[in-house]
Amino acid sequence: MRKPDGIVTAGYYQGLRRKAARATLILASVAVLGIITVVVALSRGYWAHARYNSGFGSVSVGDSRPRVVELMGGSGRERDCVQRGEDRLRPCVVAVSYVVAPYFEVWTFEFGKDGRVRSKVREELD
Length: 126
Known about the structure:
The structure is a single chain. By secondary structure, the chain is of the alpha+beta class. It has one domain (5-124). The protein contains two helices and four strands, in the order ααββββ. A four-stranded antiparallel sheet has the order 1-2-3-4. A hairpin with a 5-residue loop joins strand 3 and strand 4. The radius of gyration is 29 Å and the shape is rod-shaped. The termini are far apart.
């Protein structure tokens, strides 16, 4: 005796519905995790931007490097100094930059041989 096609195809389509539901759940989970990641990255960038702006305003020429680290909240990224014509008498030993990617700004402090801030610059990247 032959089984009706309706029972066979009904089971086939039921299995497809389960697979589709599982795939939808996986896609929804990935989308939610992606959104959470973006929100966390942007909020972290906003926090760092606010801290760097506040710290930059509080740092004065002549402050020590530990004072800059305390106000800026981190050690920053060391780079070579840019020697300017009028600054040859007081050469820069190291420059430290603080960068926040979403805001495209750089806060740079140049330190002299004595380990004190000799200049500070805030730049907006294009």
